[in-house]
Design goal:
Layout: E1 2-3, E2 6-11, E3 14-19, E4 23-24, H1 31-34, E5 56-64, E6 67-77, E7 86-87, H2 91-96, H3 114-117, E8 122-126, E9 131-135, E10 154-155, E11 160-173, E12 180-193, E13 196-205, E14 209-221, E15 226-234, E16 244-252, E17 268-272, E18 276-282, E19 285-292, E20 295-299, E21 311-316, E22 322-327, E23 341-350, E24 360-369, E25 374-383, E26 386-397, E27 400-411, E28 414-427, E29 432-441, H4 449-453, E30 462-473, E31 480-490, E32 497-508, E33 511-521, E34 527-538, E35 545-553, E36 556-566, E37 570-579, E38 582-593, E39 596-605, E40 609-622, E41 625-629, E42 637-640, E43 648-649, E44 662-665, E45 674-679, E46 687-689, E47 693-698, E48 705-707, E49 710-712, E50 714-722, E51 733-735, E52 741-744, E53 750-756, E54 759-765, E55 773-779, E56 788-796
Parallel strand pairs: 5-9, 10-47, 42-48, 50-56
Antiparallel strand pairs: 1-4, 2-3, 5-6, 6-7, 8-9, 11-12, 11-40, 12-13, 13-14, 14-15, 15-16, 16-23, 17-20, 18-19, 18-21, 21-22, 23-24, 24-25, 25-26, 26-27, 27-28, 28-29, 29-30, 30-31, 31-32, 32-33, 33-34, 34-35, 35-36, 36-37, 37-38, 38-39, 39-40, 40-41, 42-44, 43-45, 45-47, 46-49, 50-53, 51-52, ...
């Protein structure tokens, strides 16, 4: 029962009610009902107060003013004459709770109650749920934007090394005497020593040899909110053209800002008729090569350094045919918040050129948010016999977002300019999204840095390019309409390139369908029109999907039907296709394990066949040993859970602790709090987690080590009896020789005790008097049983008679 105390106050002719805090009354237990016929008295007061907590340190889910902060270690201490322990807060803990500790009275850093530090604050503990809700007046809080993580909490990680791999073999026989085998190996390696990170990324293919994509040392420059890279790197391409150089690159890293204060790699989409090999290049650089199953595919994990130049995509089918298309990756001005700035500085030797020796150049950019609606930016590139200047702005207007900039370049005595305009808006009334980009060179003398030093590029100098897009939802019943168009021309003439497409998507019951029409004209004036119809129907479980498609172009028609299904652990699919006078069968499958991913595919046509296999994963060396892992992101974590082989890490699909007690969480978000949970389900009874959840905010590229302490010891169901043969009092406390609690005596005078050693002594207490204590010796069986049942006699301590 809870009591409410009301007090009535007459004020202004009205009655005001002040409601006092609800004070829970003690819960009383009738001992005769709990232990009929048992001798002795037992102290059950420990169970009588719901909010009473024994002294100790507890991992609790903490909320401050209903905002979750994650799992924190909160100490509870008991003062003299107090009925229970209370939360103990010092300055470091208050700082983690978001309290402005600099505003607190000076002197003393002792452990105090929350309300002693902060008048008006209150704490509400739900101990069974391991939750602590704190109410802290706003006057005592540090006012930070949403998503703020104190830089002092950023984790540098541990010394570690890793090597990620992406291997594939693609064997194809087109039936025309052109059988060949294509192999590819992508390598991504790194070494973390203190605050320096070494990174290397490259690719090896059977027809192109080994190519180094990047190779550098990196270090964070937190006071400037920036990253420093030394080596073979690629500059940012958001304002000026991205350049690959060997030298120094210092640039802003917006990830250090809170999530709510942050101001690009493109996504490659396409459709494969069969098991196909997709190669993505940027100029002469092979960025990615992957085998995809039949149907629509999406590749959204390109290396970030690829931003700033159009991507050429080649889809190689098993019958020898190829699809080629370009993914626009042009720079676009970005608006910043008022007062925010972003910069990039690069000095080094240009790598993407054929002239020797490699020319030196310097490049710099600056963006400044001058107001909520206006951002200004500028940039320059300087080299021997080359200069480039850029000036522009980004405007947020009631009619949409507008970006406008002008550039001037001088190379080898020739001059030229360029105008660039971008526009985007959302028409709220109709939910219509419009986008427009226009780029015009004002003279043939305008060249990029790469064009100035690579005379082959002069034959492809672009004069103008226009792209436009529209996305129009038609309502839940009518689907969605989207369209795009582009046009480009060059100074060398030869005609213009033109393309446009129109698509419509909707759903009839569970059947989804997409109809697309596109046309493209090349430099020679040849037109290619393609019609596509794709159908999708969920079938066979949450991830089962039946698909069908029809493609009609100038080279004839192609039809395809297939089925795919899978889980987090595996996936598989089959399909059949017909077109160009041939038929083909395709099958594929994939398997994800804690130590990597495996895939395989096969295809058989009338005159062709195809077989492929692939493997992706990583190997990580760290202070605890060597651990195999799934493909890694830029930032990942090592989890250490001793004696917990097979325990599942919730943050990754199929991530489990290995026999050495380690697991790799393959992806974390840098500079943000990441919660990493270990699922104790399935752990042996002799292993207990002290905590199963932690939070970490790693720095970019860091590899934090998260240790989850475990308590090991065997578990037994022990029937304890007094020396005279009678039962022990219900609720008596059982502890080991060091005083650590093991359990409570329950019905039938039994206790389920965890954390037992091979042999030892149990201490039982059911009151404050000496006569209300006894000890029992135990010895476990040598044979390993998950749960051992045993009996023991609890004898009086020397000089006592229970």
């Amino acid at each position: 029962m809870k009591r409410l105390r009301f007090s009535g106050l007459l004020a202004g002719g009205g009655l005001q009610l002040a409601v006092a805090a609800q004070v829970p009354e003690p819960i009383e237990f009738e001992q005769r009902f709990l232990r009929p016929g048992a001798a002795g008295n037992v102290d059950l007061s420990v169970f009588s107060q719901p909010a009473r907590v024994m002294p100790g340190d507890y991992w609790l889910q903490v909320q401050v003013n209903q905002r979750p902060l994650g799992r924190l270690l909160i100490p509870y201490r008991q003062g003299a004459g107090e009925a229970g322990a209370h939360g103990c807060f010092d300055r470091p803990l208050l700082r983690r709770l978001g309290v402005a500790v600099d505003a607190l009275p000076k002197g003393g850093d002792s452990c105090r109650r929350l309300e002693q530090w902060l008048p008006g604050a209150a704490e509400h503990l739900d101990f069974p749920q391991q939750r602590l809700a704190l109410d802290i007046p706003q006057a005592w809080q540090v006012r930070e934007p949403d998503g703020f993580v104190d830089a002092e909490s950023w984790d540098w990680g541990v010394t570690s090394a890793f090597s990620g791999y992406d291997l594939s073999v693609f064997d194809v026989d087109s039936g025309q005497g052109s059988a060949h085998t294509q192999t590819y190996a992508g390598l991504s390696s790194g070494l973390n020593l203190g605050r320096w990170h070494w990174r290397h990324q490259g690719s090896l293919s059977s027809d192109g040899g080994y190519q180094t994509l990047s190779h550098y040392l990196q270090r964070e420059v937190a006071p400037w909110g920036a990253q420093l890279r030394l080596g073979q790197v690629t500059t940012q391409g958001d304002l000026l053209d991205a350049q690959q150089l060997r030298g120094i690159h210092l640039f802003s890293d917006d990830r250090m800002l809170p999530a709510s204060q942050r101001g690009y790699a493109p996504v490659v989409r396409g459709v494969a008729r069969g098991n196909a090999r997709v190669a993505i290049r940027q100029g002469e650089r092979l960025l990615r090569e992957v085998v995809v199953p039949p149907g629509a595919f999406v590749i959204d994990d390109l290396y970030a350094a690829s931003v700033g130049g159009d991507l050429q995509v080649t889809v190689s089918e098993a019958d020898g045919s190829e699809q080629r298309f370009t993914v626009t990756n042009a720079a676009a001005p970005l608006a910043l918040r008022e007062g925010r700035s972003r910069f990039g500085i690069s000095v080094g030797q240009l790598q993407e050129q054929v002239q020797a020796p490699a020319p030196w150049f310097a490049q710099g950019t600056w963006q400044q948010g001058l107001s909520d609606s206006f951002t200004g930016y500028l940039g320059t590139t300087l080299a021997a016999e080359y200069q480039q200047w850029l000036l522009g702005s980004a405007l947020n207007t009631p009619l949409g977002a507008v970006g406008l900039d002008v550039a001037r370049a001088q190379a080898n005595g020739e001059q030229g300019g360029r105008l660039r305009l971008s526009y985007g808006t959302l028409l709220m009334a109709s939910d219509t999204r419009l986008g427009l980009n226009y780029q015009q060179a004002t003279g043939p003398g305008y060249r990029t840095l790469a064009q100035a030093y690579d005379h082959r590029a002069l034959s492809l100098r672009e004069r103008a390019r226009t792209t436009a897009s529209i996305n129009q939802p038609l309502g839940s019943a009518w689907g969605q309409l989207n369209g795009s168009a582009w046009h480009s021309s060059s100074w060398e003439g030869g005609g213009a390139r033109l393309g446009y497409s129109l698509g419509y998507a909707n759903r009839f019951a569970d059947l989804g369908y997409v109809l697309t029409a596109s046309r493209e004209r090349d430099l020679h004036g040849r037109d290619e029109t393609v019609w596509q119809l794709n159908l999708s129907l969920p079938l066979g479980g949450g991830r089962g999907n039946l698909t069908a498609g029809l493609n009609q172009g100038s080279q004839g028609h192609q039809a395809q039907a297939g089925y795919r299904n899978g889980t987090d652990r595996y996936n598989y699919g089959v399909s059949v296709s017909e077109g160009r006078g041939t038929a083909q069968f395709n099958g594929f499958g994939g398997w994800r394990a804690p130590y990597g991913e495996l895939s395989a595919s096969l295809g058989q046509g009338d005159r062709s066949r195809q077989v492929s296999a692939g493997a992706r994963g990583a190997v990580v060396a760290h202070p605890g040993g060597v651990t195999f892992a799934q493909p890694l992101a830029e930032t990942f974590a090592i989890v250490e859970v001793p004696e917990a082989k097979g325990a599942r890490v919730v943050n990754g699909s199929q991530v489990r602790v290995d026999g050495r007690g380690h697991a790799i969480v393959p992806q974390l978000v840098p500079y943000q709090l990441n919660r990493v949970d270990v699922d104790p389900t399935g752990l042996p009874l002799d292993v207990e987690l002290a905590t199963n959840s932690q939070q970490v905010a790693p720095r970019a590229g860091a590899v934090p080590l998260l240790r989850y302490p475990t308590r090991t010891g065997r578990t037994a169901l022990i029937e304890l009896r007094l020396a005279a043969g009678g039962p022990l009092p219900f609720g008596a406390q059982v502890s080991d020789g060091s005083g650590a609690a093991l359990g409570v005596v329950g019905q039938g005078s039994r206790v389920l005790a965890r954390g037992l050693q091979g042999k030892g002594q149990l201490q039982v207490q059911w009151g404050d008097q000496q006569a209300q204590r006894c000890v029992a010796d135990y010895e476990m069986e040598t044979a390993g049983k998950a749960l051992q049942v045993m009996k023991a006699t609890c004898a009086a301590e020397q000089g006592n008679t229970p």
